[in-house]
Amino acid sequence: MSASVLPYTVKPHPVTGVYSGKLGTWLFLASEVMLFGAFFSTYVLLRVGAPTEGAAVWPTHEQTHLSWKIGGFNTLVLIISSVTMVLAWAQLKMNNFSKARLYLIVTFVLAGLFLVVKLTMEYYPKFEAGIRPSTNIFFAAYFVLTGLHALHIVGGMVVIGYFIGPGASLWKKDPEYFTNRIECTGLYWHFVDLVWIFLFPVLYLL
Amino acid sequence: MSHDEHHELSFIRKYVFSIDHKVIGIQYGITALCFLFFGFCLMMLMRWQLAYPGQELPVLGKLLGEEFFPGGVMTPDFYNSLGVMHGTIMIFLGVVPLLVGAFGNYVMPLQIGAPDMSFPKLNMASYWIYLCGGCVMLASFFVPGGAANSGWTAYPPLSVTATTGQTWWIIGMVFLITSSLLGSVNFIVTIVQLRAKGLTMFRLPFFVWSQLVTAFLLLLAFPPLEAAGVLQLADRVLGTSFFLPEGLVISGQQLVQGAVPSGGGNPILWQHLFWFLAHPEVYVLILPAMGIVGEIIANNTRKPLWGYRPIVYSSIFLGFMSFIVWAHHMFITGMGTSLSMFFATTTMIISIPSVVILTALVISLYKGSIRFNVPMLFALSFLPMFAIGGLTGLPLGLPASDIHLHDTYYVIGHFHYVVAPGTIFAIFAGVYYWFPKVTGRRMSEGLGKIHFWLSLIGMNGAFMPMFFVGIAGMLRRGYDPAAYAANENLLGMVKMSSWSVWMLGVAQLPFILNFFMSIVAGKKVSANPWEATTLEWSAPSPPPHGNFEAVPVVYRGPYEYSTDDRKDDFFPQHLQAEA
Amino acid sequence: MNSRRYTAIASVLVAVLWLGFATPLLAQDTAAAPSFDVELTGDYGYHLPPNIAPEGTYPHTVDSLIDILHYFMVVLFVGWGIFFVYCLWKFRQREGHKADAKPIKAKASKYAEIVVAIFEAFLLIGLSIPAWASVRNEFPTEEENPLHLRVVAEQFQWNFHYPGPDGVFGKTSPAFLDLATNILGIDPADPNGKDDITATELHIPVNRKVIADISSKDVIHSFAIGVLRVKQDAIPGMRIPVWFEANRTGNYEISCAQLCGNNHYSMRALMIVEDQGVFDAWYAKAAEGPEEFDEDELDD
Fold first, then answer.
1. What is the pLDDT of residue C5?
2. What is the total count of domains within chain C?
3. Average pLDDT, integer, range C97-104
4. pLDDT at residue B432, rounded to an integer
5. C283 domain-assigned
């Protein structure tokens, strides 16, 4: 049955230099770039093409009620979580599983912190004040873009949580495979941070 | 990742939730063929209304219920639903899953000498997500107001104000897009990572190349549609107005703030996002079809495909160009001269690689020794049919002639020639060609020939009239062509088209019969009944789990037919040259 | 082998019989079709609809482009088809015939491809772009005294808004909209709007250029005058101008070319091209009593 074992799931391919999972993750991220690219283009088009009079005028900073302080804090949280994600992977490379797990837990908690801040300090007060996605085109874009990003954060948390919990047993069976998986998770996680790093100035500052 | 324990798997793990690319390929194939036939049945219903507008549909009219057939006559809303669902089902649930999900999944790993796809579980997930999407689409017929009825292009504001079916349509599309994305990642990684030793990129069969380019198109073109779908969903469900400008007045009611939209959106934005997918989608439909036809022509002319490298470069070029032609679907939205000039130019440029591929396939016939078996008949007729489809694209790609032909039956005729007698004939060719690999048996040639000739006549009878009525100015998506006095003299050909469609339906019976009878009673054949050279024929039929008895090694290009120094007229890729 | 050949022949026979069956259908009478309420001017059939634009304007370029393209397509397809059929016959598998795998130099096809590319470039640059530029950019100047009007689409009707004798459109807003009396939402306080004409039939004078601004109240429609080769999407939130000129009087159809809902298929209007004198009389009468006029039209 030697023919039935899939090659390059763990070891890199000699020519391409990557294992299949990593290539797959990069391709997936390419499609994610197209997805968020479409959202950003939509935002730019709608903003540039916004009418100069009437009810659909683009709101000013004062009208959007977005605090750059909260947004900035969340940006910082995500950047730190990216760093801890890299550290987790580095610890695995150095064969130090318990420290790696600790860094994964920190990443997970930071992601959770991001969501809690997002929900309690940004979404909730806006709903309290009667602001909905239907309020105006800016809030439509704001809620859809940040909501979709938040879903990506949740997705990341599910994966990281899996590797902290039940997925961790793979480390005993095949440490290299496990390290690879954490690397792929890290790639995704950096991408999610990167999206936020674009979202933050576009929505809060510009 | 326990690949060695498969012989002990339960029935469910082996045939239902299987991670074997061959089983998944067969699942895709059967499901998509069913959808294809269902989508075709919708069209047969529509053709009744077109041929006999306002007349009671015999028998079925009563059965389908008073909501959609009051007094046995189809309502305009139901006609529009049929139009949307025919388009959506044929493209997203029928043809693409067949070309990519079924043939791609089954044949591609075999052709590159891989034991399976790179991510078998992901592959299984693709299929099940696809099936969910299909079920959501079908279920939408039963929601209040029926299925989506705003055109398969779902242009807002119409689609945003449409009945619930539209929401289901979007959700179904999100499932299908997700399935395609997972599939395309898997395909690219498999082709890049898992090729057998010695199988360099330029020794790949053309079919694999076509799958590679297609996978890139799916990967990069689908996400913008997913984004657009999310935005339209928000417009429908959350009351946002991404695609709605200020001051809409629908049915005499001003849509006031709070009730619906704040305005500030742009309906054209949807069209850009939609066609940014939907034009590459055309090449998703045609490239794998060309791949299948290329394989079969090389095999049945008993000589190498002419211009292998130009064909490969052309398909890559097609892939790139398909991302910058989308707005030729939107000339009459009021596009300015410079923008329309750009898109018309790219459109003319993209016609060149298509011509190169078609020419290469025809020149491949020259000095061959052509066997007219059923797969070859379908593959051969693909060529003139695709040529008609391609040529009639020219007047649509030039903005000036598009003014008259836009949204007429000419457009319908054009893309159906590309997709129906083009792609679907390639699919039939593929089914007849690879059937022996999947089952170890051959399909009947006699029934196959009946199927072929009747289908050829039916297809042409159905679509050729569309060019004539289209030039005469008959508009598409019309529930009742007799509503315009200018169409008075055109109704004869409309009728002929309808009768041809029904004949085409009857012509599929020999195929269905042949398909199922051959599974149990077809003639048993060897592993390589067509005397072909590519790797899939070196595996047993049907291939076991893991595909090959020994890890294959490749020594030469894909189409070494009729090389001088051998007794056989073919030289398989995996055989070492004698010393 | 023989039985296979018989099945093939039988299939062809069935196919021929089918065509024999289809042809009478093609020629069948259209008596079942409903009677049409207007007598259209001109000859309609399996060819381009009549073209009532003056010679030398863009609708004629559109027609010649369509004609040239189809001759070109037929030539290409027939030439290509002859080669195709020749190959199928000459190189069919038979006793004593072997495939020749030696590479073929196909110079002819290369030249053919280059010729096709050059011809496409000619059609694009020589015909299509000038015609399109004429559609989009060469609007009649005020010296040519064009007729200005607005076309406002809604489900499922075309509304035509003329400025009236004063030549100025009244202000419009959805706030003033009333389906029975003020379908365009013309501001009743605006003096310019007093003599505005609202109609559901398009009246235009013969041999005079017309500039029409196309817009929509609800969803996307497409304003199409087949006989003038005019087609322009009516997009809510936008007002897009088109221009055209007719040189033959008579009754013609205007259609909606973009799916706009369940009655899209019957969203048509009548275009009446009339002599300047007749048009002026209609214009004056319509400007006097818009309400009365509306009533008549709504019965339609």
1. 61
2. 2
3. 85
4. 97
5. yes
Pull the structure tokens for residue B236: 């429908």
Q: Is residue C204 part of a domain?
A: yes
Q: Which residue of B has its CA nearest to C34?
A: B482
B-proximal residues of C, 179-218, CB under 8 Å = 179, 185, 214, 217-218
Question: Given a cut of 80, is residue B256 above it in pLDDT?
Answer: no
Q: Which residue segment(s) compose the domain that C129 sits in?
A: 48-91+107-138
Characterize B415-454 residue by residue with b for buried, 16 or more Cβ atoms within 10 angstroms of its Cβ, and e for exposed: bbbbbbbbbbbbbbbbbbbbbbbbbbbbbbbbbbbbbbbb
C220 near C234, Cβ under 8 Å?
Answer: yes
Domain A19-52+68-205, what architecture?
Answer: Up-down Bundle (1.20)
d(CA C253, CA B555): 67
Judgement on whether residues C235 and C131 belong to the same structural domain of the protein? no
* Per-residue pLDDT at B579: 56
Burial label for B6, CB within 10 Å (0-12, 13-18, 19+), is middle
Residue C159 included in any domain: yes
Nearest CA in chain B to A58: B264
Which of B116, B219, B265 lies at the smallest CB-CB distance from A30?
B219
A55 part of contact set with chain B, CB < 8 Å: yes
Chain B residues inside the 8 Å CB shell of A36 = 227
User: Please, what sign has the CA dihedral across residues B541, B544, B549, B552?
Assistant: positive
The token pair that represents B253 in the structure block: 């009611």
pLDDT attached to residue B1: 41
Tell me: do C197 and C112 sit in the same domain. Answer: no
Residue C11 domain flag: no
| A30 CB within 8 Å of a chain B CB | yes
Domains of chain B: 14-243+262-538 (1.20.210.10)
Across the range C233-238, mean pLDDT stands at: 93
Write out chain C residues lying below 8 Å of B334, CB-based: 214, 232-233, 235, 238, 240
Of A3, A5, A30, the CB nearest to B550: A3
CATH number at residue C247: 2.60.40.420
Is the domain of C234 the same as that of C270? Answer: yes
Task: For residues A129-145, give the mean pLDDT.
Answer: 90
Read off the pTM.
0.92
Average confidence (pLDDT) over B102-114: 96
Q: Are residues C151 and C269 in the same domain?
A: yes
What was the pLDDT predicted at C39?
84
d(CA B135, CA B89): 11
Q: pLDDT by residue (tens digit) across B141-183?
A: 999 888 999 999 999 999 988 889 999 999 999 999 999 999 9
Chain C residues within 8 A of B499 when measuring between CB atoms: 21-22, 25
| Whether the predicted pLDDT of C20 surpasses 60 | no
Distances (CA, A) of B206 to A1, B251, B291, B364, C242: 29, 54, 6, 13, 48
- C213 shares a domain with C123: no
| Statement to judge: residues C131 and C166 lie in one domain | no
Judge whether C114 is closer than 8 Å to chain B, CB to CB: no
Q: Is there a single domain that holds both residue C223 and residue C271?
A: yes
Which residue on chain B is closest to C78 by alpha carbon? B384
pLDDT at A59: 86
pLDDT at position C259, please?
A: 94
Q: What is the mean pLDDT of residues B17-23?
A: 92
DSSP state of C34: P
Q: Which amino acid is at B173?
A: M
The answer to whether the Cβ–Cβ distance between A134 and B226 falls below 8 Å is: no
Query: Is B158 in contact with C261 (Cβ distance < 8 A)?
Result: yes
Residues C132 and C255 in one domain: no
Instruction: Report in angstroms the alpha-carbon separations of C197 from B348, C210, C242.
Output: 45, 16, 19
Residues B208-250 pLDDT 10s: 999 999 999 999 999 999 999 999 999 999 888 899 988 888 7
| Average pLDDT across chain B, whole number | 91
Q: Is the pLDDT of residue B42 over 80?
A: yes
Q: Does A191 touch chain B (CB under 8 A)?
A: no
Sign of CA pseudo-dihedral B536, B540, B543, B549:
negative
